[in-house]
Amino acid sequence: MSAPLPARDDRVVGQPLPHESAALHVTGRALYTEDLGYRMPGLLHAHPVQAPHAHAVVTRLDPSPALAVPGVVRVLTAADVPGTNDAGAKGDEPLFPDEVMFHGQSVCWVLAETPEAARLGALAVEVAYEVLAAVVTLEEAIEAGSFQGGAPRLERGDVENGLAHAAHVFSGVTTSAGQEHFYLETHCSIANVDESGQVFLQSSTQHPSETQDIVAHVLGRATHAVTVQCLRMGGGFGGKEMQPHGFAAVAALGAVLTGRPVRVRLTRGQDMTMTGKRHGFHTRWRVAFDDEGHLLALEATLTSDGGWSLDLSEPVMARALCHVDNAYWIPNVRVDGRIARTNKTSQTAFRGFGGPQGMLVIEDILGRCAPLLGIDPLSLRQRNFYREGQSTPYGQVVRHAERIVTCWEHVLSTADVARRLEDVAQYNATQEHSRRAIAVTPVKFGIAFNFTAFNQAGALVHVYKDGSVLVNHGGTEMGQGLHTKMLQIAATALDVPLDLVRLAPTRTDKVPNTSATAASSGADLNGGAVLDACVQIRERLRAVQAAHEAPLPWADLVAAAYAERVQLWAAGFYRTEGLHWDSAAMQGSPFKYFSYGVAAAEVEVDGFTGSHRVLRVDVVHDVGDSLSPLIDLGQVEGAFVQGAGWLTLEDLRWDESHGPSRGRLATNTASTYKLPSFSEMPEEFTVTLLERAHEDGAVHGSKAVGEPPLMLAFSVREALRQAAAAFGPPGVSVGLAAPATPEAVFWAVEHARGGNVPPGLHPVVEG
Amino acid sequence: MALRAKGPADHDDEEDQGMATDQTPRVTVNGVVHDLVGTDPWTPALEWLRSIGLTGAKEGCAEGECGACSVMLARRDGEDRTRWAAVNSCLLPASALAGQEVVTSEGLGSPEALHPVQHEMAVRGGSQCGYCTPGFVCSMAAEFYRPDRAPSREDHGGEVGPNGFDLSAISGNLCRCTGYRPIRDAAYALGLPQTDDALASRLRSPGPAAAPVVVDGPTGSYVRPADLDEAIHLIQRHPDAVVVAGSTDWGVDVNLKGARAGLVIGIDHLADLRAVTRDAEHLEIGAALTLAELERGLAREIPLLETVLPLFASPLIRNSATIGGNLATGSPIGDLAPALLALGADVVLHGADGQRVVPLASFFTGYRRSVRGRDELIRAVRIPLPLGEVTGFHKIAKRRHDDISSVAVAVSLHVVDGTVQRARIGVGGVAATPLRATDAEASLEGQSWTRATAAAAGEVLREVGTPIDDHRASAAYRRAVLATALVRLHAQGASTAEVTR
């Protein structure tokens, strides 16, 4: 496994190649799950009946009027489920509920010949509800004691002592909003039943094996009777890790019951109102600093908004707690986590998976406390960095801590931060109505699933008699370039040209028991497995070559191996070594390594409205030895903008009133929920991958890249805070809502100017 | 052939028979002719394109916000030339494609022979998941073929490339993966079209004419009448008919609210609605001119519109949406209405009994309601001349491009010798309809145009309308930004005022 390969300048790994499907993407030929339906005669279309209440009991459900609608074929209800009526991994997500737990939850599904007939059929279904009291906001849940799942505590040192003897103690509340994934492709599953009774599902899923498991238990069948395939997804970002299962199960159930292919494809509105999002967090904290601004102690209670069911809320909270330190040494720590149960969609994985919410706490604390300590935020951050040999609050040594400083200094010098800070001061001194600021923030992010068992992967590599190569692996492609990297690894390991290698769609009947393509680990895990398979084949071919005097060209070598009855295909397997994690004690070494990065962002804020622009961003990010630099660059940039969207623009609003639409998602369309467009791209944007960053023990010395750079966007939020503060006198601590929309920044500016800020619109730090 | 046999559009009187042509409605897609017979009048062009196997264009939002459905249409550019216009195919009824030419991502190139736009997008990492990419490619290709695009060394604030590519052309396309930098680089790397490029050659001949047509589908018909009077007659006989021009509003209702209609009347092509006329006292703009056409043709004449139009929705929408349609929908927010209020515009209504002229300030009567009669159409918008010397438009939104305003304020001041002789202020987002802020206007008129005057009038403007708390903004914020709008205008326009003085 991970056999070291000789360094070669011309090897395919490390080349900046375009995405393997780029030519298909740009010509509209790349097929996504929904596109496949247009090639299927007899396809039935499913439409959900969505409940108009946040919490209610279904007292009557009469599908018969729907059956009278022309084109309607069947209505699927709880009575149709042959196996278990549950779509979750925790047994708390009934597929056809008798108690509605959030506004928009589906109570049954209508199958029809056309999408239009299915829609009209769903309108015709008669459902009666008894409305119950609903918990909508995180604050209401905390007040009511509405929690679910475990309440982990992460502790080190003596927090009380640290707080008692510190020069400075501050306390406050930090909140961060959720985030809608808004993958451009909404959820889609198409199910078919073959002649042997096997259910074949094509699904936009990041976790085909779990989709398979759940479909099997809903159908009451063995896992081997269900096959799940994913060609590619139009974006995932974590939103297709747990959420596809129920939709796949509906399609599968429909196909089994009607004998026809069934498509479940959500409209944008359905997707937004029915699927989980990033968890919003509420954190109450106390922090202690010494006179020089060194962090001495942190006590915090993080409460996440889990929505109606557990889903992935527990591991999300674990990761949040494990990232509350970000890149900073905090000797005494006690952080508690708890998961609120609210009548909302079940919040789920989203790029960063709790990491961003945890790290936001310490970055918010440093940003708000710096003026109170009289230390500029740049220095305050820098003097608290981890040093080599120090360990995290959960006991893992922070290996390569010096890379934080390396990235930091690299950014400060290449972005010319010192000179630009003077320019900013000059600008602010001469402008009346706008202010600029530069903030620099670091990222340290642990790579591996906290849940150790998930850190394994499989692959299947075939070499055919003509020398062509087919690669299967357990990871899914959602745009992150995983397949491109796998092709590069296979071509390099077998030492063949890239065009001899083809990648087959991800299928559970090729590679079983896979982990979700998540936690940024897709390339680490599946790359390890592909490499393992290729190395096995390579070793066998080496033996064949040894019997020949002259070196055989690839095709001849393969032909010779076949003739000599040498196995030309191999199953590869990889598991990440050296991990251990005690989830009860919240101690151990859950991560294979840490990814590091630093960003410097310059922003400009308009004092009239709080509107803002990101003028320039410079990033240095550690991806180890990049497997595929063009792909990695794209991941860093894309994550940054997505993170900036979360922190400055994207604004999920639920109806919190006590009126009839209580609990309804008010921002349930693209016109009300705005994600970054061209206008939010940093005007100057320079990303550099850290050089000489080889990571021992990872595939080709590379590091994960999917999630860590999202948190580089804290630099934008901190710059906005500083720019708002620059409207006021020195030393004013500025709280900033997350997301820092123009309105939120406006109130921060008003606060800095000593103006009148309506209650609830501006957070304050208590000294 | 007659309109469909049953339903609300059911009739067989002779006039309709006479109007209908005997031609099968056809559309050319990627050079291949398809017929549209059997298409319902509400079926989106996107769904129809996908149903014939062209699944490159995607549904990302179904309301014209994301651009994943973008396709190119050949549009008339004067009498003898053509332009490629990218539009949201999710909002356009498929039947409205009758007689038109469509190019999709599949038609631009193939994996073996990429179009220059496709090549740049592919090699620069412009696609990640690829779902938004076909739409981006179409929007980008339309700009690639823009006749007046020319390389330039001028600095346009970073939003126009050295190749003359105007980045705003792709601002109606959302990408959730890339962060846009590689897409921008792809756009700026494009050269000019080759001389033998078929789509470039197409620009040099007349665009497709929009001939009268009837498209019958299972549940209704789409009719493109021959002229305005015929449109009015149809509306009179079919009170439930839906009238569309660009269909950017009705298309959203179709997709998101299940709106359907037995008869849809397309008026976007009517010559009576597409003229621009001028005399000493007025500029009259035909109601069916698209916002993109106004942007190209009139914006320089009317600085306020030059400010507003680039901020109005996206270029994909502006290629379809019309000035008349925007007023007819009566949105309380629509950015155009506040601007036209500030310009003192009138609405010219045309009905069976002739035409009448209504001041825009008294046109709106309530939430999405107006004085327009059921059988009247907006024929034109009339703007009095001369225009105010000092104008400004402030749009408050979460996102800079393509967002709905939480508050929009348009101001037009006639300043003589430093004194405000006439002030007109239009405001959106503070009431059930766009409003004239007459109190604030009064507090400006007769005063010298100074920061103090602006600040004092701002305090009056703060109280206009009845702003609410909603997902876009709090009422407190809306009032706060109203209060600063005039000071902001004064700060930005100080030099203009100096010159006038």
Architecture overview:
The complex is a heterodimer of chains A (767) and B (501). With 767 residues, chain A is of the alpha+beta class. Chain A has 20 helices and 27 strands. Among the domains of chain A are: 22-30 and 456-575, 2-Layer Sandwich (Aldehyde Oxidoreductase, domain 4); 385-445 and 593-767, Aldehyde Oxidoreductase, domain 4. Chain B folds into 3 domains: 26-202, Roll (Ubiquitin-like (UB roll)), CATH 3.10.20; 271-384, Uridine Diphospho-n-acetylenolpyruvylglucosamine Reductase, domain 3; 390-500, 2-Layer Sandwich (Enolase-like, domain 1), CATH 3.30.390.50. The interface between A and B is large, with 80 and 85 residues.
Topology:
The complex is a heterodimer of chains A (767) and B (501).
Chain A lengths: L21 H5 L6 H5 L6 E7 L5 E7 L1 H4 L4 E5 L22 E2 L5 E7 L2 H10 L1 E6 L6 H7 L2 E2 L4 E4 L2 H6 L3 E9 L11 E6 L5 E5 L4 H12 L6 E5 L13 H15 L3 E4 L2 H7 L6 E9 L5 E11 L7 H10 L9 E9 L14 H19 L3 H6 L19 H13 L2 H14 L3 E14 L8 E8 L5 E5 L8 H13 L6 E3 L2 E2 L14 H25 L7 H10 L5 E7 L4 E3 L4 E3 L3 E14 L5 E10 L7 H20 L35 E6 L24 H12 L16 H11 L15
Parallel strand pairs in A: 1-13, 11-12, 15-16, 19-20, 26-27
Antiparallel strand pairs in A: 1-5, 2-4, 2-6, 3-5, 7-16, 8-16, 9-14, 10-11, 10-13, 12-21, 14-15, 17-25, 18-19, 18-22, 23-24, 25-26
Helix pairs in contact in A: 7-8, 10-11, 11-19, 15-16, 16-17, 19-20
Chain B lengths: L13 H6 L6 E4 L2 E4 L9 H7 L18 E8 L3 E8 L12 E3 L1 H4 L7 H8 L9 H12 L36 H9 L8 H5 L10 E5 L2 E5 L3 H10 L4 E3 L5 H8 L5 E4 L9 E3 L3 E5 L4 H7 L5 H6 L6 H4 L4 H7 L6 H7 L3 E6 L2 E6 L4 E3 L2 E2 L6 E8 L5 E7 L10 E10 L2 E10 L6 E2 L1 H7 L6 H11 L13 H26 L1
Parallel strand pairs in B: 1-5, 7-9, 8-9
Antiparallel strand pairs in B: 1-2, 3-4, 3-5, 6-7, 10-11, 11-16, 12-13, 12-16, 14-15, 17-18, 18-19, 19-20
Helix pairs in contact in B: 4-6, 15-16, 16-17
Keywords (chain B): FAD, Flavoprotein, Iron, Metal-binding, Oxidoreductase
InterPro entries (chain B): 2Fe-2S-bd, 2Fe-2S-bd_dom_sf, 2Fe-2S_ferredoxin-like_sf, 2Fe2S_fd_BS, Beta-grasp_dom_sf, CO_DH_flav_C, CO_DH_flav_C_dom_sf, Diverse_Substr_Oxidored
Pfam family, one (chain B): FAD_binding_5
